[in-house]
UniProtKB/TrEMBL annotation:
Protein name as catalogued: Putative glutamate--cysteine ligase 2
EC number: 6.3.2.2
Catalysed reactions, semicolon-separated: L-cysteine + L-glutamate + ATP = gamma-L-glutamyl-L-cysteine + ADP + phosphate + H(+)
Top EC category: ligase
Family membership noted in the UniProt record: Belongs to the glutamate--cysteine ligase type 2 family. YbdK subfamily.
Pfam family, one: GCS2
């Protein structure tokens, strides 16, 4: 059974006002004194961010518990410094991001200017094990049109600098400002994948292969495919659902490759339209069906994803739980829906943030 790991980026906020706090260095220093958490939390681009990485899990129930545990540990360490954590993909309240003291991040700030300063966005990255680079690239080629559905499910960033952005996932729009981010064409082989990465680094536009920000890529450190399309999810259960669906997509794609089935040959231009539509409407409107690239109700497209990965999820015993979680999400709304409902009810973005702090910890 393929193992799965999750990386989540959380926003550090004041527990009373909801305003972002640039305290990641202090929170990390506190976590490093805890032997159990020394390899869990990491520095990110901005001081208002805190990242954690779970250990690889084979059981999705274990992964969900691990995500919930890491979130609670993050809140505990932050609480010792006078702040807390919120699983928000952008800050609803106005913020002036502070770039972390780090040679790499300083290089990026000088190189990319305002695009770096505005990258206070929090995502969720899912790692799924693969047997080889060849299998990994075959998977990347075949999951391309389906990843936009994960973006719609996870969308959790409707507000930007104190205003409603009009998007369900504005984080994904900000992320596209990196020159190496986004959708890819079909590679066809691991050799072609690695050749393109080498050519991109050789241009000097990006620092190194750590800046290959494809929506799905081969991990630099682990024998995994890393899917990077999702917003950080408001609830840990949604994050576990996204991870479950990613594992289903990876296994389904690997089976198609072994059976000699070619990937859907959608152009990058069409994929960009599909991702834009998912970022705009989330689960509240229409999405582009991954097979036909024609508009359909979001509910129908989510069910098409479940049908696509169904056999793989049945084999791991995850199908019923994934279907139930998708139905609950369609019924109750994703993070963007919850945030907008909170804003409509309270009229206060501060109240939105403080309520989302509670959602973050379940």
């Amino acid at each position: 059974m393929r193992t799965v790991g999750v990386e989540e980026e959380l926003l550090l906020v004041d527990p009373e006002t909801g305003e972002p706090r640039a305290l990641s260095a202090a929170v990390l220093a506190h976590a490093e004194r805890d032997d159990a958490d020394q390899d869990v939390f990491e520095k990110e681009l901005h001081e208002q961010m805190l990242e954690f990485a779970t250990h690889p899990q084979s059981s999705m129930e274990s992964l969900r518990a691990e995500i919930a545990r890491c979130r609670k540990e993050a809140a505990r360490h932050a609480g010792e410094i006078g702040c807390t954590v919120a699983a928000l993909a952008t800050s609803p309240l106005p913020v002036s991001p502070a770039i972390s003291v780090n040679q790499r991040y300083q290089w990026m700030a000088e190189r990319y200017g305002i695009a770096t300063r505005e990258q206070l966005v929090m995502g969720c990255h899912v790692h799924v094990s693969v047997e080889s680079d060849e299998e990994g690239v075959a998977v990347i080629d075949r999951v391309r049109p389906w990843l936009q559905v994960l973006l719609a499910l996870s969308a959790n960033s409707p507000f930007w600098q104190g205003h409603d952005s009009g998007y369900s996932s504005y984080r994904s729009r900000v992320w596209q400002r990196w020159p190496s981010a986004g959708q890819t064409g079909i590679f066809g082989s691991a050799e072609r994948y690695h050749r393109l990465v080498s050519e991109m680094v050789a241009t000097g536009v990006i620092l190194d292969d750590g800046m290959i920000y494809f929506d799905a890529r081969l991990s630099r450190q682990y024998p995994t495919v890393e899917v990077r399309v999702s917003d950080v999810c408001l609830r840990s259960g949604t994050a576990a659902l996204v991870a479950t669906l990613v594992r289903g997509l990876v296994e389904t794609a690997a089976r198609e490759w072994r059976a000699g089935r070619e990937p859907l040959d959608h152009s990058v231009s069409l994929l960009r339209l599909a991702y834009w539509q998912a970022a705009r409407s989330g689960l509240t409107g229409e999405l582009l069906h991954p097979a036909t690239m024609r508009r359909m109700p979001a509910e129908a497209v989510v069910r098409a994803l479940l049908d696509h990965v169904g056999p793989a999820l049945e084999d791991t015993g995850d199908f019923d739980r994934a279907r139930s979680a998708c139905e609950e999400l369609l019924r109750e709304g994703n993070g963007a829906t919850v945030q907008r409902e909170l804003m409509e009810r309270t009229g206060s973005l501060r109240d939105v943030v403080t309520a989302c702090v509670r959602h973050t910890q379940g």
